[in-house]
Amino acid sequence: MTRVTEYQKTLLASALAFCLAFLLGTARPAAAQDTTFVYLRGVDTVLVELHRDSSLIQVKHKPSEYWSLRTNLFYWGSGTPNLGFEVPVSGHWSLGGNVGFKPWDRFFGNDKAGLAIDAPRRWRNLVVAPEARFYTDTINTGFFLSGDLLYSHYNTGNVKFPLGMYKRVRQDYAQGNLFGLGIGLGYSWWLSDHWRLEAEAGVAGAWYSHNTYYIKECKNCIIEHQKGPALVPKLGLNLAYTFGPRDKKPVPVDTTIHLAPYDTVRPIYLAPVLPLVEEWKGVAGMLEKNNPVLKPSKEYKPYTPDMVLRKMEGPLYVHFELDKTILKREFRDNAPILDQIIDITRQIMADTTSSVSCIQIIGLASIEGREKHNQQLSDGRAKALQKYIQNRLPIQDELFEPNAGGEAWSEFRDQVNDLRLEGGGDLTLTQLHNVMEIIDGEPDPARREQRIRALDKGTVYKILKRDLLSDQRNSGYIRIYYDYVPDKTALQINDAIAAIQDGNYAEALRLLEEVKDDDRAQSAYGVALFYNGRTDDALKVLRKAAAAGDETAARNLSDMQHVVDHNSHVGEKIYTRDIYGNEITNNK
pTM for this structure? Predict the structure, then answer.
């Protein structure tokens, strides 16, 4: 192959072809100046051609219908069969590719002699080039910019290329591969409803790698292995066939039609904003927003030993001293947590629309020591927290669910895994992996602890005890579940919103008429009135709600007023047909 410095003539030829394509592309027929192309709302729906000198509307197909096959005539001139394809993906973009394969040595069967005496020409190659195009006008029409990836496998020698390109292969054979990235400019002309002609010029930057062989002295002897950068020109005169009909038959329309935006020649429809109404859950529901320790009873989950409580959202926890069941306010950060538990519970107990249904406490102990002792320790800690709450609030035993979680092996394993994901800290990843293997593979808790203690002569356990086990010396976690009086009005409004979304407008209006005095129902009520043909009443309801500060009602009011004004304009006699020639219903 030839290096970059040998491509000056090649670049000059590419530039000339580029200019030629530009000049040919700008020579549009005069008739094109009498036609305007516009896209309707939604660029992938339908293309409309408005003829200014007649009362015709030309409706074109979706861009996705214009897929094509093509072949490069210049490439056939080198004796290389080739085929390309193109599939539009929008009104301007398309994806495709080209493949060329020449398995025989020479241009054609009668081309036997080469430049070197008694040595045949050799020009075999395989080219694969995926391509993306951007059309500046519309798909398959006019100017386009292209970008492509290039791969070629070649076996070439004893061939004289034009413009002084690839001088080395005049005397030697070269066999290898080339990878590149190219750009190009082209122009596409429609010859008929299906056939197109494309002119394209471009250049690719590439990297080649091949072996060079002598032609005369020893055809099979490698001279050297060469690799380096190269420039590869691209010249194409493509004949393309586009599948699917190009245009629909022009539709006659009234001569009074105006060239106007799409929105002014067709009616528009209301798309209301109808968020579900938040159900009132009493004081407990209000507190839940800032205190995730609270959950409604329907979300209750019983405790199981495989739960990783430290990763659950919301539960509060308090700590105990090593091997103790006495709950001390001053230990660590217990005081604010205990105050929060008491304050939340007291507020709910004072409410008439919500109530405490269950206080779930899970007592845990560290994995250190005897399993039976730790089980008793976790049970004592759960009961200590229950007693602390009952000493301050009149809550019956039946509302508490104390759980003796025993040794917190699930918590410990999760802590070890987090340490592993963070890089290991003072332990290696292998050491942490060994700890997790023991936890997962040893069913007996006592034996499990002994094996971890024995790792690396106790070094691993010492670091784990320092960094992880101190957080396990706690009562575990507390979760407060609550009940509340159902908000029937909110549920009925939400049922009405569902009916509107299902198109059951009469049922929606019936439901909302029963709760129309509730401020939360006003926006949905106005929409239901509109869909039941009571436009004036709908606007009146929405104006009142918007004036009271209802932002959803204000937005629906604005959209509804726009729909009413627009569709009244569409109903004028000047717009008697839509773009397909169908009668437009008078909306007045």
Answer: 0.46
